[in-house]
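Re-run with default settings, no changes from the original entry. Doing this only to confirm the output is reproducible before filing.
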Amino acid sequence: MVFPLYRRPGGVAFLDDDPAYLEMLAEVMPESWHVRLFVRPADCINRLQQESPRWEADAWRQRDILDRWREGHALIPQILQYWREDKTARFEFTQVCVVDYSMPAMNGLQVLDELVNWSGSRVLLTGQADEQLAVTAFNAGLLEQFIPKQSSDIARKLTDAIQRLLDEPHGGSARAWQATLSREQLVMVSAPAVGRQLAALAAEHQWVEHVVIGDPFGILALDAAGQAFWLQLEPATRLAELAELAECHGVPAADIQDIRTGRRLFDVELRLALGSDRAGLYPAVQLCDGPAVYSALLPIPAELCPGPSGSYSEFLNTCGPRELQAF
């Protein structure tokens, strides 16, 4: 698998003229998702259209971070500041919209046609008679997925499809952050073996948001409680250079050998980015062979993190029960 360069939680909107069906979906969808339920097309369309200017403002904020980086400002403190100042606002964006095709006021394709300027992913639920229309719409790029509503395992198929779309980064953001990576770094994190290992680390530490950057090389991530982490990434070809850097900072010879062999990593680049002179050594693991990549996980000081008040968990707590929405 390819590990996404940029990911954060996004909401899921369901539109169906059958309230009972919506209530069933609300019960079976994962609790970690922010779910909105709409029974009227106009309410769903209005809600998502209202998000478009905020999507654009958020994209400009990210581009501003990158512009300042090109001017010489460190990326890590800028991203941490963005997360702290944004609090939970970015979690409100709807990333996937699931629409039933057969509705009396508007059919599902008509609804999706109204969302032409909305940036999220589109899923269409179809009946047997609607599948050819869905195939045509899919081939035309009007939606990312269509699922027969009469499937016996509809809940599983729908959950799997939505999760895949939630895991895909917003196109503009992914391309923007890719600019921080060298060609070699991009090839490294795009390797399937590395991607599987990074995905396993993200799941183990319950990351809900992350961004892969190349200066320094690593992943800045947030867990659901608002604690930030830095996953330092080092190719085997750079270990000798890192060891020399540690030696210049007075690291003992025995520890230098640990760096050269990839048993530990020196976090000086993170500390310099954060304005701290307290660099240290952290246990490292080898992610994969050929080419070898080593990683070390470092917690970010609590005062630089969004914390519980700016966490995804807090956001979900404030959303309340999954009820039918009106705009």
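The mean pLDDT is 91. The first helix runs from residue 19 to 28.
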